[in-house]
């Protein structure tokens, strides 16, 4: 049984019944063909239907606790944008108009966000809510009546950040008339992932997290499924990776498209920071592609010795909440915000800040630092390989390294945080506190230093 939730722009499934969304749209919008937009609809007799993307965002986000104790994992900010928005952005860019979010809990927490995404990216979003966990395959079966209208559809893992080669992958899928295409990526250590053995264009064997991998190619968490694959999925808790993919591989039905650009699974704190670094490296490589930066609501500045003696190196990216703010910012050629950073902040490596971030004098930022919306960094702070999420304050002369600071937190003067620390939402650290490799739950006040590695402050 599937729960039902409604608002003025969304309709959610209930049981075996599927309701359409977008009744408020003009008829011309509802019947517009997407074939000329290079989507993956292939049947000529369905040219009046829009393609669907199914995103598995369910689960409880336990690997990213304590951040997920107050925020559903898809809504956690990654490089100043909710994780799921990175994916929605790329889906919208390639013409996808309808998205299903497979969610295991807290649907009401993301309702306002979904409304915002529908308006911002001109997409329609449906929630598919499970009464009980259904794994990675069960949610597809649950939405079968809806998905069966479309010949092919994307499936995303919500932990994935990459360059999203969706059009290229879609073209490959269509050209090969593939039943199922998996995005794969070569990695140094594949043991934590689904490993694929390939031959020509096909996957001949699929092994989920093997102790001794026979290949360095892994399942990168993005698929294109033909609707016939739904016939292989049972109506119960089911794992695509353990039950469905191995069978399809043995029946020569599993194709792969290899990604050669950056990719990251950001479902754990350490991987989150690594993914953040890769994301900004990709921005740095593409900094001259103005269209790409505008799509991401970013402005790029190269900081070097020529600007000021206090600035050493390298790349500053500024994010904006919306296109109106970006345009207003661009109109102000004598922007004091950027001038102040040039004069008073030392940037080392790649740094991404919000246009609403406040940075006081004599700070050193980078490499790999992200500062969220309305973050305040006090005088003389040193931050590297870390993320400070929205509305947090780091008071003067504090040192933060290899850490994630949750939103609305406050770090006192002369504090030191290092060793892969994660602070939940609204954590308060008193002045002169040392924290080493600790996880601090939301709304906690820390009055004493934490020296024990791996400590969990509840």
TrEMBL record:
Family annotation (SUPFAM superfamilies): Nucleotide-diphospho-sugar transferases (SSF53448), Trimeric LpxA-like enzymes (SSF51161)
Basic and acidic residues bias spans: 1-11
Pfam family of the protein (one): NTP_transferase
Signal peptide interval: none
Keyword vocabulary terms for this entry: GTP-binding, Nucleotide-binding, Transferase
Residue span, Mannose-1-phosphate guanyltransferase C-terminal domain: 347-455
Pathway: Nucleotide-sugar biosynthesis; GDP-alpha-D-mannose biosynthesis; GDP-alpha-D-mannose from alpha-D-mannose 1-phosphate (GTP route): step 1/1
Disordered: annotated segments: 1-22
Residue ranges constituting the Nucleotidyl transferase domain according to the UniProt record: 58-279
GO MF assignments: GTP binding; mannose-1-phosphate guanylyltransferase (GTP) activity
Similarity-based family: Belongs to the transferase hexapeptide repeat family.
Protein name, per record: mannose-1-phosphate guanylyltransferase
């Amino acid at each position: 049984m599937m729960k039902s939730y409604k608002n003025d722009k969304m309709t959610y499934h209930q049981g075996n019944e599927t309701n359409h969304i977008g009744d408020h749209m003009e008829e011309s919008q509802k019947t517009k063909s997407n074939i000329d937009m290079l989507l993956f609809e292939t049947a000529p007799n369905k040219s009046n239907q829009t393609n669907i993307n199914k995103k598995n965002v369910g689960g409880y986000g336990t690997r990213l606790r304590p951040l997920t104790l107050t925020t559903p994992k898809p809504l956690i900010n990654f490089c100043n944008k909710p994780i799921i928005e990175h994916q929605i952005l790329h889906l919208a860019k390639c013409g996808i108009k309808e998205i299903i979010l497979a969610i295991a809990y807290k649907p009401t927490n993301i309702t306002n966000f979904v409304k915002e995404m529908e308006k911002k990216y001109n997409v329609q979003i449906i929630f598919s809510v499970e009464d009980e966990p259904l794994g990675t395959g069960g949610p597809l079966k649950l939405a079968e009546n809806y998905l069966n209208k479309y010949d092919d559809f994307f499936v995303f893992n919500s932990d994935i950040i990459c360059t999203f080669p969706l059009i290229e992958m879609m073209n490959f899928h269509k050209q090969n008339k593939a039943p199922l295409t998996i995005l794969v990526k070569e990695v140094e250590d594949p043991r934590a992932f689904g490993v694929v053995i390939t031959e020509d264009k096909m996957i001949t064997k699929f092994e989920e997290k093997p102790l001794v991998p026979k290949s360095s190619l892994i399942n990168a968490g993005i698929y294109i499924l033909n609707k016939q694959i739904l016939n292989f999925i049972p109506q119960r808790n089911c794992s695509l990776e353990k039950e469905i993919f191995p069978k399809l591989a043995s029946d020569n039905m599993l194709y792969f498209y290899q990604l050669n650009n950056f990719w990251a699974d950001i479902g754990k704190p350490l991987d989150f920071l690594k993914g953040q670094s890769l994301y900004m490296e990709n921005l740095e490589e593409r900094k001259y592609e103005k269209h790409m930066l505008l799509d991401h609501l970013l402005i790029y500045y190269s900081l070097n010795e020529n600007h000021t003696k206090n600035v050493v190196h390298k790349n500053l990216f500024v994010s904006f909440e919306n296109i109106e703010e970006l345009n207003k910012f661009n109109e102000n050629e004598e922007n004091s915000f950027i001038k102040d950073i040039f004069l008073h902040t030392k940037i080392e490596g790649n740094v991404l800040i919000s246009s609403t971030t406040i940075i006081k004098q004599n700070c050193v930022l980078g490499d790999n630092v992200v500062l969220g919306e309305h973050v305040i960094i006090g005088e003389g702070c040193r931050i590297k390989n870390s993320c400070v999420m929205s509305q947090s304050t780091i008071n003067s002369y504090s040192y933060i390294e290899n850490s994630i600071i949750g939103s609305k937190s406050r770090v006192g003067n002369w504090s030191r945080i290092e060793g892969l620390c994660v602070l939940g939402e609204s954590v308060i650290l008193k002045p002169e506190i040392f924290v080493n490799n600790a996880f601090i739950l939301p709304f906690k006040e820390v009055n004493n230093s934490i020296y024990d590695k791996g400590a969990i402050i509840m």
